Amino acid sequence: MEMDKAKDLKLIDFDGSNKEQNFRCGNNYFSDNVWDFNGYVRIGHMSGSRLKLKFNFVENKPRMLHVVKWFMVHELLTGKFLTAKRSLDGVVRFVKFIEEAAPEIEGFSEITYDLLKSYFTYLLDAKSETTGKPLGGVAIKKCAFAIKEILLKGNVKGWGVPEDVRYVQNLYDEMITFNKSIKRDSKKAEEIVKEKIEDEDLIDRIVKVAMEDLDKSENILTASSVVLSTQLGLRISELITIYSASIKEIGGDTMLIYSTGKLSPEPVEVYKPANQLVVYAMDKIKEFAAPLQKESGLPYLFLSRNRNKKGYPVGLASHANWNKNYLRPWIKQHNIRDKNDELIDFTSHTFRHAFASYALKGGASIEVISQLMNHKSIRGTTHYTHLFKKDVESKFSSVLHENAVITGVKALEIKEKLKQHNPFKGKTIDQVNKIRRAMKIQVLSHGLCLHHPMRNEACAGDGVCLGCQNFLTTPEFLEVHKGRLEKVQNELSTASSNGPYEAKLKTIENYLLGIIRDLELQMNYQGNNDNSEYVSQDELGVRIV
Q1: What angle do CA 193, 201, 350 make, to 5 degrees?
Q2: pLDDT (tens digit, 9 = 90+) per residue, 120-132?
Q3: Bridge partner list, 246
Q4: Helices 348-361 and 220-232 sit at what angle, rounded to 10 degrees?
Q5: Which of 42, 121, 247, 346 could be joined to 350 by an S-S link, Cβ 3.0–4.6 Å?
Q6: Which helix (H) or strand (E) holds 275?
Q7: What predicted TM-score, i.e. pTM, was given to this entire model?
Q8: Cα dihedral across residues 327, 331, 336, 337: positive or negative
C-alpha cells in the first residue's frame, strides 16, 4: 500500500457496539491468530513481520488467547502500534512461565494472588534468552506491567479475569515499583550512562572523528548520524526516517526543516535549530543519498544496499541493527577509547543522553530540551537530566540570601528584596526546593530561571538565557561559564566571517564575558561573605555586554 494512503486507515474497525462481531484488525480479523498491519502502520524502519502481531505463543490456551487479543484491541485503540507490540512482548514471557510453572492454568480468570506473586518473583530471577544475563529493570517492569494491566483493565471490561483484583496493584507496587533491587539496577545503569557522557573531551573527540570522516566522504551514514545525534538529540529511528530536509533562515536563526513519519501516524514537518556541524552533516548525507534515492525511488536520506539480497537492492538502513552494523564497527575502526583505554561501549542512544545533559549544562531549560527531543511530556525529559539537576539543586539551598554573590539583570533588585524578607533563610534543602517550586523558580545547570508561566511573559526559549531579565547565576557556576566561553571562542575561530553563526556566537561571548567579570568582581569585593553593598558594573553605567 502506498505511503500516503496509510495515514488515512484505521488500525482496527472495532467501535465497541458488538464484542461478538469478527471485526477487521489490520489486514486480518479478530479471529485470526496473526494480525498484519503492513499498509496500516507507517514506520519507515519497520516492514514485513515486524508489523505483525502474532498470537501463536498462546494458541493452545483459547481462553487466555481471547483475553490477550482484547488487550491488544485496547492497546491499539488507546495508543500506537509499537505500544501494543511492546505489551504483547511482555505477555509472551508470562505465558512461558505458565507453561512451565502451572500448565493446568487455562485462562486469566484462574490467576490467584499466590500465582501472580510467583510470577513477579520469577521475573526478578529470570534471564534473557539472547544474552543469558539477568533481565534488566526495564524488561522486568514491562513484563509485570502487561499482566497487571490485563487483570485490572480486564476486570472493568469483562475480558475473563478474576472477579477480585484488588490485590493486583498493591502486589505490583510492593514487588516491582518499590523494589530496591530494581531501583539499584536502574540507578547503576544511570550511573554508567552518566560516566560515559560526562567526559566532555571524549564526546568532543567523537564528534571530531565524525567530522573528519565527512571531510573525506567516508562512513557517511555513521558519521552524519553521530553529528546529528549529538547536536539535535534525535532518536536513531527518527534520524534514519528523515526525508525532504532543507536548511532555511527563519527570524535570523538557521533551522533544519525535515519531514519524518516516526513521530506520529501521519508525516510530520519538524523544525530544529541548526549549527554549522548540522548544516555540514546534512549537506554530506544529502549528497550521498541522491543517487540511491534516484535508483530506488525512496525519499529517505539514510539509504544503504542490502548485501544479503540478490542484486544488492537499495533500502532504508536498518534501525534495529544500527549499533551492530554501523556504530560499533565505526568505533572499532577509529579505535575510540575511554580514559581506561577500553573501546567505548556507546550506542546511538548514548548520544541522545549526551545531547540532553550538555544542553542542560549549556543553559537550555527542561521545557526547551523536551521540545528539541520530541518528548510528549516533561516527565520523559527528566529521565535524561535528573542526575544533573540533583547536583544543581543541592547547590542552591543556601544561594539566595541578602549577601549572595549573584549576577543578572535583576540581581540587585532581588538582593534588596531578600534583605527585607528571605523565604529561604534557615530552611533545609527539601524546604528550599518546595518553596522554589511553588514560586516557579527553575533550576538550570548554570543558574536560576525566574520566568513564571502565569505572568504571561514571553520566553525566547532558545536556551541562551544569558541576557534574559529572568536569569540569575552564581559563583557555583563560574567554571561552567568559563568552559562555555572557551568553547564559544573556539567555534568563533572557525566560523565564517560576517555569517549568522559569527553574530550569534559573538553575542553569547559578550554575555559570558560580562557574567564572568561581574561574578569575579563580587567575589573579590570585601571577601566572599559580605557583598551587601556591592554595585555591579552595569549599575555603575558600564554595560556588561
Answers
A1: 25
A2: 999 998 888 777 7
A3: 257
A4: 30
A5: 346
A6: none
A7: 0.59
A8: positive
